[in-house]
Amino acid sequence: MSLEGGVTFIKIGGPDLQLKMSHEEKLKNYRTAPFDARFPNTNQTRNCYQNYLDYHRCNKALTAKDKDPAPCEWYHRVYKSLCPIAWVQKWDDQLEAGTFPGKI
Amino acid sequence: MSSMLKVVGKQLKNHPALIPLFIFIGGGATMSMMYLARLALKNPDVSWDRKNNPEPWNKLEHNQQYKLFAVNMDYTKLKKDRPDF
Fold it and tell me: Using the 8-state DSSP alphabet, how is residue A51 labeled?
């Protein structure tokens, strides 16, 4: 529905909603990491690691294509919500030293 | 092998009440083996070929359910969150 003056309100709900939301809107509405069907169990270790990897892979892929890496911020938020700070620090140090074991 | 089966066959003919035992034990063993096979072949954490299938969990759809029973989680209502890149 839209009011005069071009203001549009988005109704929360509906399966296409996330696709229609822009990246800025998604990040503004971000509260915590949403449920991820790939990791339905209590152990969320892989969820944390996968988002860390995806953030860096996304940055690498988008900068290689000369596109704005802003969408990658989603993964950054998710891994910051999920991962223990010590792990993130260790992996960041490893990335700087070039010893990070994951494939980016 | 066949001599063992012949012995069992004779025992069953003399004691037919044992047949349900075979059915239930056989059914239980089959179900266990089927569950192990499901785990080995369908579990998204399992990768038999690390070179060509390194991260099999990424092949799941955003609303695909692997669990047999999911309590309090309606997978049909899940939306696609992650940006593509």
Answer: H
Contact B44 A38 (CB under 8 A): yes
- CB of A37 within 8 A of CB of B75? yes
Q: Do residue B80 and residue A19 have CB atoms under 8 angstroms apart?
A: yes
- This complex has an ipTM of 0.81
In this prediction, what percent of chain A has a pLDDT beyond 70?
81
B75 contacts in A (CB within 8 Å)?
Answer: 37
Tokens 């203001």 label which residue?
Answer: A7
Q: Mind listing the pLDDT tens digit for each residue in B13-26?
A: 999 999 999 999 99
What is the DSSP code (8-state) at residue A38? T
The verdict on B7 and B35 lying in the same domain is yes
Domain count, chain B: 2
B42 inside 8 A of chain A by CB = no
Same domain, B38 and B13: yes
In chain A, the domains with their CATH numbers are 42-103 (1.10.10.140)
| Residue B39: both structure tokens together | 């785990």
